[in-house]
Amino acid sequence: MLATFSDVEPPAVTRIVFSEQDLRARSWFKQLCAEAGLATREDAVGNTFARWEGARADLPAVATGSHVDAIPYSGKFDGVVGVLGGLESIRALQKSGFRPARSIELIQFTAEEPTRFGVGCLGSRLLSGALTDSVDITLRDDSGDTLNAVRTRAGFGGDLAAVRLAENAYSAFVELHIEQGPLLERENTPIGVVTNIAAPASFLVTIEGQGGHAGGTLMPGRRDALCAASELILEIERLARSSGSADTVATVGTCEVYPGAINSIPSRVKVGVDLRDIDGGVRNRVLDEIKRAAESISQQRQVQMQMEMLNADLPASSSPHVLQAIESACGEMKIPSRRIVSRAYHDSLFMSRVAPMAMIFIPCRDGVSHRPDEYAAIGDIASGVEVLARSLAALSIDVT
Ligand code: HGY
Ligand code: MN
Ligand code: MN
Q: Are the C-beta atoms of 387 and 89 separated by less than 8 Å?
């Protein structure tokens, strides 16, 4: 059902934050939470909280959650498994007659994907204090609208500074998510227990050369911005491949060419780069190498290159007692699991700054994600939901 809230034809899904489809998906989700008897609220950036009050509501709650926004032409399962799976785990616990001591809170985070505002995990960054309310006017979408204008238009007014969570809001945070990689399926292991989340960095490089007539401008002396960008893109790929770490990944996912006419030499090009490694030090070393490469290419080709960092985040490690709760749940269910690192980032990366965190992965077919053929088998989703339910139950009883 959630996949029907999309701006493109199935099987692809596009659901950009604060779009009409995103708002429809949000109200459908809130309706389901209300039907499950959960008290729901939304904060000024649209993070949605659905709470199952526990006997010890005075204590910090146990939280779970993920996101429902989807990048263009992606799939049905990224994020959704953690939001609907989180709701299903609560409903299963309710049906079983379980009563939590600590309250259990399900969170649907706003804008986990960077598509609209250029930075991922916007909702969880604001919750954890990794971003301040200054972004209300500094972040703009492609139409030039500020975050403030867009969120207000979407019905989320109020003071962005109030989004930040109070100290000790949660005693634990657990996120259920598809692996977005091939390991679990390849090893036929139904559950991944995530120990670390990679350190993501993203940045824009604007290359200014000299435009001109494609026919009348001879090759010597050209300062073609797209040729310079192409050299940089291949150098970024080479530096990532040769970093000495199998965990280094670099992607140039966007490229804008100006003026963008077939018979006009590109005078300006803007590329978007995503660079990650589980080890923040390795990632930063490759980032410095990319900066040096940009410097030398711009000298050789007599172009200007200007780099704008969008984010350069630290990696996150999971908390031992939350890992323990997940592995005990797998033990009770006699279901095989293995420890795994997450190369994708998630809202857990920022929730780890405000609560002990860990993630539960389930396999996805061929490791594919961020594509219309992204798929998770219902049996794997059910196993992930049960592991989550048991983990939340155990963590909500722990009132030490
Ligand atoms: O890009 C990521 O790692 C996440 O899927 N947004
Ligand atoms: Mn994603
Ligand atoms: Mn995701």
A: no
pTM over 0.90: yes
**Contact present, 66 and 83 (Cβ < 8 Å):** yes
Residue with tokens 């989703």: 381
Kindly identify the ligand whose nearest atom is closest to the C-alpha of 177: 3
Atom 5 of ligand 1, nearest CA residue = 344
| Residue 272 belongs to domain spanning | 199-312
Residues 19 and 156 reside in one and the same domain: yes
pLDDT in tens, 213-232: 999 999 999 999 999 999 99
> Residue 398's pLDDT is what?
74
Same domain flag for 80 and 182: yes
Q: Which of 77, 197, 247, 345 to mutate to test the pocket of ligand 1 (most atoms within 8 A of CB)?
A: 345
Q: Which atom of ligand 1 is the closest one to the Cα of 343?
A: 3
Rounding to the nearest 10 degrees, give the CA dihedral for residues 152, 73, 246, 350.
20
- Residue 34's pLDDT is 97
**Contact (Cβ atoms closer than 8 angstroms) between residue 146 and residue 380:** no
What three-state secondary structure class fits 50?
strand
Name the residue with the closest Cα to ligand 1, atom 3.
344
Which is the closest atom of ligand 1 to the Cα of 121? Answer: 6
Which residues of the chain are modeled with pLDDT < 50? none
Provide the number of structural domains found in the chain: 2
Q: Are residues 36 and 169 in the same domain?
A: yes
Residue closest via CA to ligand 1's atom 6 equals 113
Give the whole-angstrom CA distance, residue 342 versus residue 383: 19
Q: Which of 312, 329, 352 is the last residue of a domain?
A: 312
Contact between residue 83 and residue 67 where contact means Cβ atoms under 8 Å apart: yes
Among 113, 125, 347, residue to substitute to test ligand 1 (most atoms within 8 Å of Cβ): 113
Which ligand sits closest to the CA of 81? 3
- CATH number at 127 reads 3.40.630.10
CA-nearest of 45, 54, 76, 51 to 65 is 51
Ligand 1 nearest-atom number relative to CA 345: 3
State pLDDT tens for residues 316-361.
Answer: 999 999 999 999 999 999 999 999 999 999 999 999 999 999 999 9
User: What are 142-159's pLDDT values in tens digits?
Assistant: 999 999 999 999 999 999
The residues placing their C-beta within 5 Å of ligand 2, an ion, are 78
Question: Which atom of ligand 1 is closest in space to residue 274's alpha carbon?
Answer: 1
